[in-house]
Structures are given as structure tokens and as C-alpha cells.
Design a protein that fits this description.
mainly alpha, 30 helices, 538 residues, Serine Threonine Protein Phosphatase 5, Tetratricopeptide repeat
């Protein structure tokens, strides 16, 4: 958690770097078998799905594909296309689940690796995305989209030369698409090759005079070269397009720099490690967590001796419970730091957390003791050891499923907190839930978890306060029965039998079958002498 605190700080800066994060729905030659194998390219439903996706009517596209899946239960195509639409909706985990179903049905499907290329990149699995992209680019070597998607993964991993080759192939296959020369221009900027960048941006504008991003990049490029008048020409071009686009505000800001004669403050040189670090921050703030993870991996790879970046990398791995990667990164930090460096203590504490999540309690205790011995600057190891469970208690099953994939930080932190609470480490759990609430103050799971941890910690007033506030924020959520019962228990344990009975009554109105659960609950023994309770339990 100490390392995660640095991650929160890392995400608080203003962002200068942006990146396209939209999904690419496949063209028919990627999405479907060749006509010599199947006639599905001519299927009117699939054509309608593509049209709906282009119109961004994704729910209608999903409905049609679900109907198709029912009609053709043995066909992989509608299942794969459903994965693409779910990806378009930003549902990466659900997209992967659909894709894995299709993979079991038909491993040779032409759209499969094109989908894996994009979806694993979205989920932060760079190496898997890279392998899938290679196969897709080979399978569909005459389709520019396959080369374009491969270039996106390559660039995220810092392989700019290979990305440039793939974009050149895409450009040669589709000379009327201004995106490809624009993307090449951005790579030339990354390589500090401003002459080639200028040519590429101008080419993009010659193909489409509405390519607002190319116009802005030319304005910025000329500003950094102290060509103020030329820069203003392209700033005005951006503004005259009349488009709703983030680059409009960027152009206005750039114009202010020019008018105030402050263009000397603009960054002129790209440092790759800082570029990927900045892009990771930007993507995280946009909630593109998987893409942010790949970018910080690349930043750490480009400068392995920068311990701040390495610590942020560990924080990201830990945040999304990528335990194997987090452990490897932690061991590198431990080997690179001396015993007086607070980072070493924080690393042992984080390594202890990993052991808890794996159910390795003896290893966890040793690591927390080492963290404490090395100074424990934030006192987390000491707090954990104070609540540490009896080592003789067996751990019957893995606390965390190693195959469970997390891509939303609030979900992963809630899960981590639940595991600490399961082992009786309620103060640690409360600290973790607090981190969730810093991100999302009304997060239902975190508030319920926090109330439960306070109840188990015998802080009944605090549990009641949280649960009553939750009734205002989330009056009819899916766990409302458990909510009411926990509130009833909290009131009874506090000694307020009246409000305890009131909440039992409300729970039974939600579900009369809860009577059997209530009857077997020892806490409610205190209510048995009340006539109201006896009446409810008849």
C-alpha cells in the first residue's frame, strides 16, 4: 500500500501526452471466412451489424449478434464479432470472455488473432497482444488495419522502428487514409526526426484537410522551431475547422503561448522514457488502465535504473493484482537498494502483501518483519503484524484465483481488502477500502466492505454511520438484504434493540425467507424476549 501511495501521486500531474484508444471493428475480409469456405460475407445480418457499429449503435448490434448466436450455436463468427462490439463498448473483460468461447469453437478463425491483438492490449497484456498482432498481420498482410493494429502495440512497447514499418505497409495498402501518415508523423516526433514528421503531417492534410490532429501537430512543430507566424497559420486552420475535438482547446493554448512570446517554454525534444511515463499518466486518467500499464512497463524498461519509475511500475502491477509481475519487479528493487533506503522497507512490505494474497502466511510474516526491521516508514508492516493471524490456522484454498483478471482498480482493491479482512487484518482492510473511496467516494462495494470491517472490529457506531449513509446513496442496491441485516446486527450489538428490530422487520419485508437466517443468528438472541420480534418470527 505504501508503493500504491506513490502511484496516486504519480497520477496527479497535468498531462501533455495523448493517444488514440478507440477499438477497430474488422472489415469483412478479416471478420469472415473466404467465400470459398463460407458464404457468411454475404449474410445481410452481418452487413447490418457492421453498419450499426459504424453508426455507434452498439446495443442494437449486440442484440442482432445475440440473435445470430442463438440461430447458429456452432458458428464462431457471431461470437467473435460480439467480442469486437463489447470491446467498442469498453467492456474489455467481457470481450475477452466472448473471444475465449469462440477460441474453443474454432481456433483457426480469420478474425481471432486480430481480436486478441486489440483486446489483450486493452487489458495490459503487451506480450500476448504482440504475438497475436504478428499472426494477424501475417494472416491479413493485404489489409491495412492488421498492420495498423500491430503498429499500435509495437509503439506502446517502445518499438518505434518496427511500428514505422507496419504503418508504412498500411499506408501503401490504403493511400487515401490520412490516419496512417499522421501516425507515422507521430513516430517521427518520438524519434526527434522533425523533418520527416513535417512531411508526414503535411501528407495527412493533403489527403484530408479535416485531419485536425495533423494540423495541430504542424502548429506545435513550427512553434518549437520559433516559426510563430507559420504556427499561427495552422492554429487558425484547427480553429476554422469548427470541429468538437480536444485539439481545439490545445490549439487555443498554443496560440496563447505564441501571443505571449512564451514558445521557448514548449518541449522541443522527446525523451522516450519520459514520453511513455507521461502517456501512462494520461491514459490512467482516462481510465484506460491496461494501456496505461503497458506504457509504464515500457518507461521502466527504457530506464531500469530509475527507481521512482520502477516503484510506480510495482504500484501498477499491485493495483491490478498482477502478482507474478509485481514480485519480479519488487525483487529487482530489493536487489538495487541498500538497507537504509526507505524504498527497500516498502518493497518488503509490498512483497508481504503478495504472500498474503497467495495464502503464504509464513512467508508474509517474515517479509513484514523484515520491512519493520528496515524502518517501516509508514508503519504498515507494524500494523499488519499487530493483527497477523495464528500461523497454525490452515489456509484451505488460495485466497486469490491466479486466473482472475482485474482491470478496474476499485474492483481489485476491494478484492484485496476482502482477503485481508478474511484473515482478520481489519485495519489493513480498512486502509485499502479507504483507497477505493479516494477514487470513487460512493463505491458501493467499498462502503459495504468498510461497514463490515468496522462491525467485525467492534466499531458499531462507525458501521451504523456508513450503512445509514449508504441507504441514502444506494437505497435499492442488489445487496440490500445483507445491508439491512448487517445494520440490524450493528444496532443490536450497540445495544439499540429498537432500531435493531426495525431493520429485522425491513429485512423480512424484502425477503420473508430471511426468517430462517435470522433465527439461526446468535446476535439476534438479544431480541428474542421482545414481543415484536416474536411476532415477526411466527
Amino acid at each position: 500500500m505504501a508503493i500504491f501511495t506513490l502511484l496516486v501521486s504519480f497520477l496527479s500531474f497535468n498531462i501533455l501526452f495523448t493517444s488514440p484508444v478507440s477499438a477497430t471493428y474488422p472489415t469483412p475480409d478479416i471478420a469472415h471466412w473466404d467465400l470459398s469456405v463460407s458464404d457468411e460475407r454475404n449474410d445481410a445480418d452481418y452487413k447490418e451489424v457492421q453498419s450499426l457499429v459504424e453508426q455507434k449503435n452498439l446495443d442494437a448490434a449486440l442484440a442482432l449478434l445475440n440473435k445470430k448466436i442463438e440461430e447458429l450455436p456452432k458458428e464462431a463468427s457471431p461470437v467473435i464479432l460480439k467480442a469486437f462490439v463489447l470491446h467498442e463498448k469498453g467492456l474489455a473483460k467481457e470481450s475477452l470472455e466472448s473471444l475465449l468461447i469462440a477460441f474453443k469453437m474454432e481456433r483457426q478463425h480469420p478474425a481471432l488473432h486480430f481480436a486478441f491483438c486489440q483486446i489483450h492490449r486493452k487489458l495490459g497484456n503487451a506480450k500476448i497482444s504482440d504475438r497475436a498482432c504478428i499472426i494477424a498481420a501475417q494472416q491479413h498482410h493485404r489489409n491495412p488495419l492488421a498492420h495498423y493494429e500491430y503498429a499500435q502495440t509495437l509503439m506502446a512497447m517502445g518499438n518505434s522502428m518496427e511500428a514505422l514499418k507496419e504503418l508504412t505497409q498500411a499506408e501503401n495498402l490504403d493511400k487515401k487514409n490520412s490516419s496512417y501518415p499522421y501516425q507515422k508523423g507521430m513516430i517521427f516526433i518520438y524519434q526527434n526526426n522533425n523533418d520527416e514528421a513535417e512531411k508526414s503531417f503535411k501528407k495527412a492534410l493533403s489527403i484530408s484537410d479535416k485531419n485536425i490532429e495533423a494540423a495541430y501537430q504542424l502548429a506545435y512543430l513550427y512553434a518549437t522551431q520559433n516559426k510563430g507566424e507559420l504556427s499561427k497559420t495552422y492554429v487558425n486552420k484547427v480553429l476554422e475547422m469548427g470541429l468538437q475535438h480536444p485539439k481545439v482547446e490545445s490549439a487555443k493554448l498554443l496560440r496563447d503561448y505564441i501571443l505571449k512570446k512564451q514558445i521557448g517554454k514548449l518541449p522541443k525534444i522527446i525523451a522516450p522514457q519520459k514520453y511513455h511515463l507521461g502517456l501512462s499518466k494520461s491514459l490512467y486518467q482516462k481510465k484506460e488502465y491496461g494501456l496505461a500499464l503497458i506504457q509504464i512497463e515500457t518507461a521502466a524498461k527504457l530506464n531500469p535504473t530509475d527507481l521512482k519509475t520502477q516503484e510506480i511500475l510495482v504500484g501498477m502491477y499491485s493495483l491490478f493484482l498482477r502478482l507474478d509481475k509485481a514480485e519480479k519487479a519488487l525483487l529487482r528493487i530489493i536487489e538495487s537498494t541498500n538497507d537504509i533506503d526507505p524504498l527497500k522497507s516498502r518493497s518488503y512490505q509490498e512483497w508481504g502483501d503478495i504472500a498474503i494474497l497467495r495464502g503464504k502466511m509464513k512467508a508474509a510474516k517474515k517479509r513484514y518483519e523484515k520491512a519493520k526491521e528496515l524502518g517501516d516508514p509508514q508503519g504498515i508492516a507494524k500494523t499488519t503484524l499487530k493483527e497477523f493471524p495464528d500461523l497454525t490456522t490452515p489456509v484451505d484454498k488460495l485466497p486469490l484465483n491466479p486466473n482472475e483478471l482485474f482491470i478496474n482498480p476499485t474492483n481489485s482493491l476491494n478484492r484485496k481488502g476482502e482477503i485481508f479482512a478474511h484473515f482478520g487484518m481489519h485495519q489493513r482492510a480498512l486502509g485499502i477500502y479507504s483507497l477505493v473511496l479516494r477514487m470513487e467516494p460512493s463505491n458501493l462495494a467499498a462502503l459495504l466492505n468498510m461497514a463490515t470491517a468496522n462491525y467485525q472490529n467492534k466499531k458499531y457506531n462507525r458501521a451504523i454511520s456508513i450503512l445509514e449513509r449508504l441507504l441514502v446513496i444506494h437505497p435499492n442496491h442488489e445487496n440490500i438484504l445483507s445491508h439491512r441485516l448487517l445494520l440490524a446486527r450493528s444496532y443490536v450489538m450497540k445495544g439499540d434493540l429498537g432500531d435493531g428490530l426495525k431493520n429485522v422487520d425491513l429485512a423480512l419485508k424484502l425477503n420473508p425467507n430471511a426468517k430462517y437466517m435470522i433465527a439461526s443468528e446468535p446476535v439476534f438472541e438479544k431480541l428474542r424476549g421482545l414481543k415484536g420480534f416474536q411476532s415477526l418470527m411466527k
